[in-house]
Structure formats: structure tokens, C-alpha cells
Amino acid sequence: DGGITQSPKYLFRKEGQNVTLSCEQNLNHDAMYWYRQDPGQGLRLIYYSQIVNDFQKGDIAEGYSVSREKKESFPLTVTSAQKNPTAFYLCASSATGVGVEQFFGPGTRLTVL
Amino acid sequence: SQQGEEDPQALSIQEGENATMNCSYKTSINNLQWYRQNSGRGLVHLILIRSNEREKHSGRLRVTLDTSKKSSSLLITASRAADTASYFCATDTNRDDKIIFGKGTRLHILP
Fold it and tell me: Which residues of B touch A103 (CB under 8 A)?
């Protein structure tokens, strides 16, 4: 079964803690993306990666970090520097190039207590 | 950065009726895509239309693109309860390899 998975589905974090969200795909896609979704805000791009060992900042990268050591995996760390981390986080993957469909994972809902 | 903007923000129609959502964008695009998101889930790709195309169909979906007005519309015919979801347009340009999503239209199909 090909697809993209995210874990965990729900995550609770205390203020001041770093937390890492997992994203794995077995679609053999080179490109992977992290988005943040807030109510009424649509999707905002945090980081994206077009190839292993390379990634670029999106529109709201401050307070987040990523790594791309394997083609299949693109974990996102929400650091304590992110001032308002409570949100729904979506990971996506696609073939490289413009005008290609992105495939989304089921999302992780992060709540800071 | 916001490129596409959907209209209306929310739409409620009776089952069986047609639903029309619009997307306007600011700068020239290469492609425009529409996605659906069920509550609390990831997005699912519906259809892509290229800048040199004016209309595309996929099942009960019809998408139009008017590059002179920088707008697109998504028509869902004979709506069903399962069509209840949020619908997003997403655009890409020559400037980079990202796609930019709008804020979405929340569609509610009434039984």
C-alpha cells in the first residue's frame, strides 16, 4: 500500500519543550513538504525539500527545523522558539517539478498545554 | 504569502443541487489545482488545470480558468452528503517550485 503517514495523530506538549513530528512516504517521491494549518488560515508552508540532504525555508520557518537524511523521511521539529505552536500540521510529498499533485498525510494535531 | 483566495468562505446547499466555488489569484500562474479536505484530515487532490487550458472535467467536477481575470471556478454537480468538506485552490508560478494555497471554501451539503 503506497502512501504517506504521519505520527502521532495527536500530540500534547508543555511550553518550553521541543517536539518532533514524523512524516514517512513510500511513494518514491523526491519532494516533501510541511504545512501548518490554523482555523480560517488555509495552509502555510513551513519547510520543503526537493532532494535528500537539502531543504529550503517556506513562509513561516521561524521556530521550526527539519532534516532530510533519507528519501522516505522528513521529520519536523517544533522548537521552544515557536511562539504559537498549537496547530494542525500536514506533511505532503510529490514528484519534483511544478504542476504536480501533492499527496498529503493525515496530519498531526499539536496542542501546547 | 497569499496567492489564491476562495469565495465564498462558506456555502450550504441542498443535496442534489450544484455547488460553485471561486478562486482568485494575484500574479500570473503556470497551473492551478483544487484540493478537498474532510474535517480533521489531509488534503486530497481533485484536479489540475494548466494556464493554457480553459476548462477541465473529472466526473461530477468541472473546473474553469480565466487567466485574463485571474480566476478559476470549481463546479460540483448533483451534490451529495459526502461532498461536505473544505475546498482549496493552489497555484504555482514561474518564480519557484512551491504551490500556494488559498484559505478555502467550507461546503456543507444539507440532507
Answer: 45
